[in-house]
Design a protein that fits this description.
It comes from Clostridium grantii DSM 8605. The protein is α/β, with parallel strands linked by helices and 533 residues long. The chain is built from 20 helices and 10 strands. Among the domains are: 251 residues, Alpha-Beta Barrel (7-stranded beta/alpha barrel), CATH 3.20.110.10; 112 residues, immunoglobulin/albumin-binding domain-like.
Length: 533
C-alpha cells in the first residue's frame, strides 16, 4: 500500500563557460567533465531503466546556461574532441597496465566506459538535450528551470526588473528548447525571500524547491513540516528539502560517498604520471588537470590507497540503495498516520555530485530505482507537479527567507570578499533599465547592442562568481569574468547613448557571449509584462 512519496530532484548547473577565443580554456573542462561523469551516465541509466520497462519519476533542473551550452555547436565539437582523447588515453592505459592484473582491470573498465559514452553521444546525434527531451516526452523526467544565469535573486531585488528579466528569460529559453513551459523552478542556491513568489506566479511557475528552513520557519507554522508542500499567498507551492535524506548523501561523516570502497576523487593520472606521457591529454600550457582516469579507492584516512575494485564498489551501491529505501520507508511510516495527506520526502541534490564527486552516484540512482521496483515498499517516486495534482489543497503559509548555503542566509554570496560585485552589477542594472525605457523602436544595430548589453548584465549576475571568490578556488577567473562583463556592458552603454556602436566589435562580442539568441532587451522596461503567460 502506498503511504507516501519520494521525490528525487537533481539540480544541473554550470556557469556559462564558452571561450572560442581561447584555444584550450581550462574552464570549458568543467562542462566536459560533467558530461563524461554525470550527464551521459545518467542518460545511460535512464535508457537502461526504460528498456527494462521499469517505471520511475525523476525531476531535474537544467539551468538556462547549461541548457544553452549543451546545445552549442562549438562546445559540442570541443567535447567530442575531449571524449576522443579520453578514449585514446584509455587505449594507451591498456598497454601501460598490462603487467598488473588489478590496474589492467580498472583500465579496461575505463576504456569500455568511455567508448560507451561515445556510443550514447552518437545515438543522440551529438546533442545531450535530445536525450533529456526524449525523457521529458516519455514522462519519466520532469525538467524544471532556474533563473537565466543562476543569479541569486534576493540579492538582485534592489532592481526588481533584473529579477523579472532573469525569470522571464529562463521561462522563454526553456520553452524554446522543450516546446512547453516549465511548471517548476529551482531557485539558485535555494535562495528565497518574500517578494519572489509573486514574480514566479506572474511567469506561470507553480512551485519551487526550497531549503528546509523556508518551510519549517514559515508563518504560520506548517502542520506537517517538510513532509508536505506549503503554498504562498499567491498560490506558488514550496517543497522543502528533507534533511535526513540529504545527510545520507551529502554528509562528510555519515554520507554514502565516503565509503572506503568507492573511487578516490583526488588521485588522477593527469597529476601522477610522467609529463611526456600525459601532455597530450592535459592543458596545452602544461597545467596538470584531471583526465578522469583514477585507479584508487578511498581506502580510508591514509595516503596509501588500495586499487579500485569496481565489483566491490557496486556491491556497496546496492547496499546503500537498499538502506536509502529502508530509511525513507521508516520516515513515511513514522509520519503518515499523523497526516491527512500522503507525505512527500523531497530529496534535492546537485546533479554534479552524482558521477563527478561521487563516481558511483549515477549507479546509486539507477540501483535505487531498480530496487524500488523489485521490493514491496510503502512509497512511490513522484515529481512535485504530480504530487500537487494528487493533493491540490495545500496549507497557505508565508515561506521564510533562506538559502541552502552556510548559515542558511546569503552570507556566502555577500561578504567582504565579494560585495564589490553587487555594487557593480546594481549600477549596470539601473543603466539597463534606463536604456530599456528610453528605446522603443531602435534601429537594428542599436537593438543588437541593447540585447548584448542585457546578456552581459545577466552573465555578470551569476551567483557562481561570488561563490568561487568566497571559497577561494578559481578566484582570478571569477574576478575576470565579472569585470569583463561589466566593462563590456559599460562600453555598450556609452556607445548606445552616443549612437556610436562599433559594429565589428559588437559582432565579436556576440560570437563569444552568444547566450540567449532571442533575448529581448525590453524585458528590462519598468513594469514590463513581456513574456508573461
Amino acid at each position: 500500500m502506498t503511504k507516501g512519496y519520494v521525490s528525487i530532484v537533481l539540480h544541473s548547473h554550470l556557469p556559462f563557460t564558452r571561450h572560442p577565443d581561447d584555444e584550450d580554456a581550462l574552464e570549458e573542462r568543467w562542462l566536459f567533465e560533467a558530461i563524461n561523469e554525470c550527464y551521459l551516465p545518467l542518460i545511460i541509466a535512464y535508457d537502461e531503466l526504460i528498456q527494462e520497462k521499469i517505471n520511475f519519476k525523476i525531476t531535474m533542473s537544467i539551468t538556462p546556461t547549461l541548457m544553452t551550452m549543451l546545445q552549442d555547436e562549438y562546445l559540442n565539437k570541443r567535447y567530442l574532441e575531449y571524449l576522443t582523447k579520453s578514449i585514446e588515453l584509455s587505449d594507451k592505459e591498456l598497454i601501460r597496465t598490462e603487467n598488473s592484473a588489478e590496474l589492467f582491470r580498472v583500465a579496461n573498465f575505463y576504456n569500455k566506459r568511455f567508448k560507451n559514452l561515445l556510443e550514447t553521444y552518437e545515438k543522440y546525434d551529438f546533442r545531450i538535450m535530445n536525450a533529456f527531451k526524449k525523457f521529458d516526452k516519455v514522462g519519466c523526467l520532469e525538467i524544471i528551470t532556474c533563473s537565466a544565469t543562476h543569479g541569486l535573486l534576493p540579492l538582485l531585488l534592489v532592481n526588481k526588473e533584473t529579477v523579472k528579466a532573469q525569470i522571464a528569460t529562463a521561462v522563454e529559453s526553456y520553452s524554446e528548447c522543450l516546446g512547453h513551459a516549465p511548471k517548476g523552478i529551482w531557485l539558485p542556491e535555494c535562495a528565497y525571500t518574500y517578494e519572489l513568489d509573486s514574480l514566479l506566479k506572474e511567469y506561470g511557475l507553480e512551485y519551487f524547491i526550497g531549503e528546509n528552513t523556508a518551510v519549517l520557519n514559515a508563518s504560520p507554522k506548517p502542520n506537517y513540516g517538510t513532509y508536505a508542500p506549503i503554498s504562498s499567498k499567491n498560490g506558488v507551492a514550496v517543497f522543502g528539502r528533507d534533511i535526513e535524506a540529504s545527510h545520507q548523501v551529502w554528509s562528510n561523516y555519515m554520507g554514502y560517498p565516503g565509503d572506503v570502497n568507492y573511487r578516490e576523487f583526488y588521485r588522477d593520472i593527469g597529476h601522477e604520471l610522467d609529463m611526456t606521457y600525459v601532455a597530450p591529454y592535459i592543458n596545452q600550457n602544461g597545467i596538470r588537470v584531471d583526465t578522469g582516469i583514477k585507479y584508487y579507492k578511498i581506502t580510508g584516512a591514509t595516503e596509501n590507497k588500495d586499487i579500485y575494485n569496481r565489483n566491490k564498489a557496486m556491491e556497496m551501491v546496492k547496499q546503500h540503495a537498499e538502506h536509502f529505501i529502508k530509511s525513507r520507508e521508516f520516515q513515511i511510516n513514522r509520519v503518515s498516520d499523523h497526516m491527512t495527506v500522503k507525505p512527500i520526502i523531497t530529496c534535492p541534490y546537485d546533479t554534479e555530485l552524482f558521477g563527478h564527486w561521487w563516481f558511483e552516484g549515477t549507479d546509486f540512482i539507477k540501483e535505487f530505482i531498480k530496487s524500488l521496483n523489485k521490493e514491496l515498499t510503502n512509497f512511490e517516486m513522484i515529481t512535485p507537479s504530480e504530487y500537487l495534482e494528487k493533493h491540490p489543497i495545500v496549507q497557505c503559509c508565508t515561506p521564510a527567507a533562506s538559502t541552502w548555503g552556510e548559515n542558511g542566509d546569503f552570507s556566502v554570496w555577500l561578504n567582504h570578499t565579494n560585495d564589490w560585485i553587487y555594487r557593480e552589477i546594481h549600477k549596470c542594472a539601473r543603466k539597463m533599465i534606463s536604456l530599456a525605457d528610453m528605446y522603443n523602436e531602435p534601429d537594428p544595430l542599436i537593438e543588437r547592442a541593447l540585447n548584448q548589453a542585457a546578456r552581459e548584465l545577466m552573465l555578470a549576475e551569476a551567483s557562481d562568481w561570488s561563490f568561487i571568490i568566497k571559497n577561494d578556488t578559481t578566484v582570478n577567473y571569477a574576478i575576470k569574468r565579472v569585470k569583463s562583463h561589466v566593462e563590456i556592458f559599460n562600453t555598450l552603454y556609452i556607445e548606445i547613448l552616443n549612437n556610436e556602436v562599433d559594429s565589428d566589435k559588437l559582432l565579436k562580442i556576440e560570437e563569444i557571449d552568444n547566450i540567449f539568441p532571442n533575448i529581448n532587451y525590453q524585458i528590462y522596461k519598468s513594469n514590463s509584462n513581456l513574456i508573461k503567460e
